[in-house]
Amino acid sequence: MKRQRLAGIEKEISRVISSVLFSEIKNPNIRGLVSVTKVRVTEDLKFADTYFSIMPPIASEGQKPVEREKILEALEEVRGFFRKRIAEEINLRFVPEVRVKLDDSIEHAIHITKLLNDLKGS
């Protein structure tokens, strides 16, 4: 399949999953903490590797740190629901199986920025 067609499918899958995360998921471990950063579909459309980023919590008193394992488990639980909604909204012969992966690029960028600011302050 052409890369351009795959890119369009990836964009639509990302849109559907983002919409589901925003409006349909009730799990407090996920809601408001997770967003889709990218989707990569295999050429045979069997798998859709979906990368999620976890929003870092705003530092405040009494707030517990985000537990990545709990969020990953919660995302694994709803991936069948993601696939169902993709099938309902996108006209595809074969609906890919959603594979959940965590994307730590935002956390990495924050860490690098902090290191650069520390160097600048020295």
Automatic annotation (TrEMBL):
Name one process (GO BP) from the record.
Answer: maturation of SSU-rRNA
Q: Which InterPro entries match?
A: KH_dom-like_a/b, RbfA, RbfA_dom_sf
The record's Gene Ontology cellular component field reads: cytosol
Q: Which UniProt keywords apply?
A: Cytoplasm, Ribosome biogenesis
Task: Kindly list the GO molecular function terms attached to this UniProt entry.
Answer: ribosomal small subunit binding
Q: Where in the cell is it found?
A: Cytoplasm
Please give the Pfam families that the UniProt record associates with this protein: RBFA
Q: Which PANTHER family match?
A: RIBOSOME-BINDING FACTOR A, CHLOROPLASTIC-RELATED
Q: How does it assemble?
A: Monomer. Binds 30S ribosomal subunits, but not 50S ribosomal subunits or 70S ribosomes.
Family assignment from sequence similarity: Belongs to the RbfA family.
User: What is the purpose of this protein?
Assistant: One of several proteins that assist in the late maturation steps of the functional core of the 30S ribosomal subunit. Associates with free 30S ribosomal subunits (but not with 30S subunits that are part of 70S ribosomes or polysomes). Required for efficient processing of 16S rRNA. May interact with the 5'-terminal helix region of 16S rRNA.
Q: What's the protein name?
A: Ribosome-binding factor A
Give the lineage: Bacteria, Fusobacteriati, Fusobacteriota, Fusobacteriia, Fusobacteriales
Q: Which gene encodes it?
A: rbfA
